[in-house]
Automatic annotation (TrEMBL):
Highest rank taxon of the organism: Bacteria
Any single Pfam family the record assigns to this protein: IclR_C
The protein, known as: IclR family transcriptional regulator
One BP annotation, GO: negative regulation of DNA-templated transcription
Length: 96
């Protein structure tokens, strides 16, 4: 298993999802399984939910992860908008 044995490294790793906008579980919870997740925002710009994709580490290797993250981002945006979320800086988002 890919677990963290160092408290400082663990706390640093906890900050990464907020900074990059997505999280990864790279076999930390379950050997042989990788999970990508993104936040889903409500109408008050709060994260109450998340969506995720899980699969074999081979599926998420190399450049493939970027394709899955883009699909996950689009799905999270659609769900967020359905819940009333509106991003004031929408025109600044990548892909628009």
């Amino acid at each position: 298993r890919n677990t963290f044995n160092d408290k400082k490294l663990f706390l640093e790793e906890l900050q990464k999802p907020r900074l990059r906008g997505w999280a990864i579980d790279n076999e930390e919870s379950t050997y042989g399984a990788v999970c990508l997740s993104m936040p889903v925002f409500n109408m008050y710009n709060r994260v109450n939910y998340a969506i995720s994709l899980s699969g074999d580490p081979v599926v998420y290797s190399g450049n493939k992860i970027d394709s899955y993250l883009e699909l996950l981002r689009k799905c999270a945006e659609q769900i967020s908008y359905g819940l009333g979320y509106r991003n004031e800086n929408e025109h600044l988002r990548k892909g628009n």
